[in-house]
Structures are given as C-alpha cells and as structure tokens.
Amino acid sequence: MTESQAAICRIELPTHNEVEVVRRRFQGSEGPSVALVAGIRGDTPEGIRVLYEITRLLRQLPEICGTVDVYPCANPLAAYAGVQRWPFFDVDLNRRFPGRADGHPPDRVAYELVQNIRGADVVIEIRGAYRAFREICQAHVRAGVPAAIDLASHANVEVVWARTPDTMAPTTFAAQFDTVLVLEGGAGNRLSEGVGEEMTAGVMNVLASLGVVDEQAVPVHWAAIHRPRVVTDAEVLRVRTELGGVFMPSVQAGAVVTRLQQLGTVVDPVHAAVLQRVEAPVAGMVLAIREQPSVHPGSLVARVVADS
Amino acid sequence: MIEDIYTIEVPFRGTYRLQRLRFGQGGPRLVVVGGLHGNELNSVYALNLLAGALRAQAPVGTVDLIPMANAFGIEEGNKLGPFDDQDLNQCFPGDADGTAMQRVAHALFQASCADVCVDLHSGSILVEELPQVRLSTHGDGHELARSLGLPLVWRRQPRPGNRNQLVDCWRAAGCTAFRITGGRGASLDKRVGASVADSLRRLMGAMGMSRPPAPNPVLADVTDERMVALRCGTGGFFVPEVAVAERVEAGNLLGRIVAPVGGATLEEVRAPCSGMVVTSRLYPMVHAQELLLRLVVLDGG
User: Fold this and answer.
1) Which of A96, A251, A253, A83 lies closest to A176 in space, CA to CA?
2) In terms of Cα–Cα distance, which of B270, B277, B268, B269 is closest to B297?
3) pLDDT band at A168, cuts 50/70/90?
4) What integer is the mean pLDDT of B36-47?
5) Interchain pair B71, A17: CB under 8 A
6) Which positions ≥6 away from B256 have C-beta within 8 Å?
7) B14: nearest CB among A14, A18, A88
8) Residue B82's closest CA among A67, A299, A160, A87?
9) At what angle do helices A45-59 and A195-209 cross, to 10 degrees?
10) CB of B12 less than 8 A from some CB of A
11) Rounded mean pLDDT of B106-127?
C-alpha cells in the first residue's frame, strides 16, 4: 500500500497567502475506490476528527484492497474560523455543487471536489450535527439506491434515513453522486464524547464490508456494531414551535417517547411564563433535539422517528 | 526588503505572517503601521505609494512599514482579527505568552517602538472622516503632527478605553506617536490614500530623513473643546445635506432623519455653530443617539 498527498485546489488569497484543499490517497491492490470527505461546512469538526482517526488506522495496515481517498477538510477557511459558511464570500459550500471551474474560490473547490471524486465506487461524507442540534448517529442515503442503503446498514448508526431529494438537494455535495452515505451525529460545532469513535468504527466497518480492509481492522467487534433501522421520509416527523421564545428540552437525543409526551417547552424568560408545551406527534425515538434555545414561530426543535 | 517579524502556524490555512518592509538604516527611525483593523484599507494604498517613493529615494535613517498587521482580518473583510474575534488594537502592549492575538500584539509592539510611530486607519464602515492626525494632549509631537499637512490636527484628551491601543502604548513607552485616519472603511479612496502618503513624506522631511514635498496648510488645529459631535434624537433614515470638508454656518440644515417607511421628516439636524464638517455618517440607518456628524469650530467661529 502506498500513501500520497496532493492539493486538489490551491486558493490564492488577496494577501498572497495560499490555502490548499488536500487529498490523502491510500492506494492498495485491486479493489473498489472509496472517497471520504469532511469539513464541507466549517462548524462540523466531528467529521474532521473521524477522518484523522481513519487516516491513523489506515496507516497501521500493511495492505488494503482498492483505493481510499481521504479529503480531511474541504472548507479550510471556515473550519479555521469555526463557522458554517466560507468566510468573506459568506456562502454555504454545501449549496455550491457541482461548482464552476471559472468561479470564485468556493465554486472552484466544489468543482474540483466533484471532478476528483467522480468515478469513485462509494462516497462517504462525514459531518457533525446541524449547528443548533444534538443528534444520534445516523446515515442519510438517497431513497431508491439499494446499494447505498445496504452499505449504510454497516455504518454503525442507529438509523438509516432513506431521503427523497428535497428542492435544495441538487446543489449539495451528496447529490452529485449515486452511492453516497452522509454520516452525522453529535452536536453542532462540537466534538462529542463517544460520537467520533462510533463514526470511526462505522466507516471502518463499511470499508470492511466492501473488502477494502480486513475485518480485524475495525476497532470494535462486529457484534458491537449497531444494526440500524431503515426509515423513509414518512417515518421521520419534524416538530416545530408555534411561538417564539426560549426552547427548553425535556428529553435527550435517542430518547424513546410516547405519543404526546413532552419534548420540551417554549418559555418567555422575561415574564417567566410557559408559552407552549411541545409534544411528540407520535410514539418513537428522538433523532435530533434542539440545543440552541432561541426559537421563532415555526422553528424546528426535534425530529422523531415513528415506531414501525 | 520584506521580512517576517512574527509568524504563527494556524490550523487548516498555513501561516499567519506579520510582515515588515524596511528602507534605509540607522537613525532616526520612523515606523508606520497599517491594517490593524481588517476593513480599513486606505492605509494599504497609502503605504504602497510611500514604499514606491522610498524605493526611488532611500531615506536618511530607517523607515519601517508594517502594512497589514491584521492580514487574516483583511482577507475576511473583517475589522476584528481571526483569533477569537478580537480587536487587535485593544490587545497592546500584548503578551508573549498570552492568546494568539496578544502574541501578535506583543511582537508588533516590540518591533515598532521607534522615534516616531504612526498608526494608519480609515473611518469605520459607517462614516467618512476628513483626513486627520490625532494625538494626545499629554505628549509631544504637536509640531511634527502639524508638519504632516493634513487638513485636521486633533489633540485629544486621553481616553481610559484607549489604554490598550497601539498609539497609547507607544506613547507610554516614550515614543512620539500619532494616529492618522481618513476616508471610509471597507472601501478605497485614492485621494485619501495619496494625501496620507504625501503627509508621511512631509513627516520624514520634518524628521530630516528626506526632502519633503511642498507643504500643505493645516485647516484646523484643535482640541476636544472645538470638536462638536452631532447625534440624532430619534432613529430612522439619515439623509445628509452636507459632505466632509464643507463649511457651514450656524443654523444651516445639515441633514434630516426621515421615517424609513413613508419618508416623513422626523428630525432636522442643524449646525449649532459655524465650522467645517470633519465626520459624516454615510450608512443611513441610524439608531437614536448615534453619531451623525462632527463639526470643527474654526478660528473666529
């Protein structure tokens, strides 16, 4: 196995400082090609941690079957600043795909990522939770792609969500490829205890299921790998507030709740009044719960997976 | 010669460099710093013009230019620095063992204490400032400040909130220190940049470092008592009727606060005295009590 590093895109800044978007390639004997990508948004450090751990694990192996391309941070300026969007241009890189070869730096990075990854057999994007939320480990795949759903079942997640592309999906990174897994979990802009380890084991287990690495390379025993439930959009219910205020959660991500169980309250802190009791619309499991408490009418505060 | 006087390795994006251009050698020594605030860019232009002049004619003594102290803030178009969102100009004299911004401040301060020190700024992104030099009433350098030939010399009482600013720390260290500002943030005014560059060449002439360009008259040389700040009584949409450098008489209409929806006049802003406009609010949405204009009372006004 060989390891190499290349800059897929060099961004020259107005001050003549230069920033590189890096690809680290592990090239083994014949086998599938896998691309692992993190840091498309700058406030998702969990994915960056996972690819750091994956790189260390791969280095310890004498051989792999196939190619693993690790893109440890697609949006280095945002990651450096710890913010979601690309600084200065203030654009969300995950709404710029497939990018433009003759565009501004975010568009060029999006373009180069797609050009470099196109042709990979499997693409895995690893990220943390959306910034306002805490989430259990989950995989998002595109509905109607059985290979992706099957692979995601090896990813050490509790839920595989087969999603129907929404109106924004065409410009996301994940929408550019067929067999693509998006792993997320933990908390926005935080490293959460245990989450990185779960995701690292999940990615290594996917590589093992593809035959790229040996089962022994997976850092946890196969029996400890989560066996996820596969759900569709219809089974994931979004819970929104009716009023603005401060949302105070009553349950944690992963909690099993009954129908109409209290998920939290929206309070008016100035008058010390409860404005709304937020209830579970169905019996099920809390996939995500809001931790950033400032809410407006219609703010998303939880996702609940309905019991089957 | 461009040299790195301090560097910090930062995650994901390489190296922060504090760079200095040095011209000449020996004494006297003049240091000019620009770009402490990343969205005040007239200084970048002014220092490039000055560097061109210094390449053509080496100075007697040493001139050090530090044009982009807050290089990462400049890249992001951000006044503040990228390290924990701090204002570099509130971190002086710095700390070699402190936060990243305090370390930058420490390195900059150590490298910049000289016979004469100048800190270049623009106005904020909200206002335009007449090109001016500000110095403390508690210190020397008044004649040197006048030698710059900028339209306004403003001798200010020390403000407690400024004690961690570069100019105040230079002065506390015994240096003759000025702050020059002019124009507006987040934009380039070439005329302002050129007049600042010319003023620095006059300063070098006054220090015996070079042959100065033709002198320029100072239009106003004042202390705080002759600076009149006009603030609005109500929030709204400010429509100015005067511009920077304009002379006004007592009672002149200077601007109106109007309702953003409907345009009804909420307040007329009139000159309380005769004078010259040295600061003008250009970003029109204003809150109650925000600064709209500054007038300087001229001799005999």
Assistant:
1) A96
2) B277
3) low
4) 96
5) yes
6) B238, B239, B241, B265, B266, B267, B268, B269
7) A18
8) A87
9) 50
10) yes
11) 97
Alpha carbon dihedral A217, A219, A223, A228, in 10-degree steps, equals -100
Residue B259: CB atoms within 10 A of its CB come to 13
Size (chain B), residues: 301
Tokens encoding A93: 């890189």
Pick the closest to residue A287 from A298, A297, A301 (CA basis): A301
B156, B136 Cβ separation under 8 angstroms: yes
Any residues with CB less than 8 A from the CB of A50 and at least 6 apart, and which?
A: A38, A126, A183, A196, A199, A200, A203
B14 in reach of chain A (CB within 8 A):
yes
* Set of chain A residues whose Cβ sits within 8 Å of the Cβ of B77: 88
Dihedral of CA atoms A201, A207, A210, A216 in degrees, nearest 10, equals -70
Tokens 């005067």 appear where? B242
How far apart CA A246 and CA A240 sit, in angstroms, is 13
Adjacent-strand bridge partners of B228: B295
Q: Which residues pair with B230 in a beta bridge?
A: B293
pLDDT, one tens digit per residue, over B79-102 is 998 777 889 999 999 999 888 899
Q: State pTM to two decimals.
A: 0.86
Examine the predicted complex and report whether its ipTM is higher than 0.90.
no
Structural domains of chain B sorted by starting position, each given as residue range(s) with its CATH number in brackets: 2-218 (3.40.630.10), 224-296 (2.40.50.100)
Torsion sign across C-alpha atoms B203, B208, B213, B218: positive
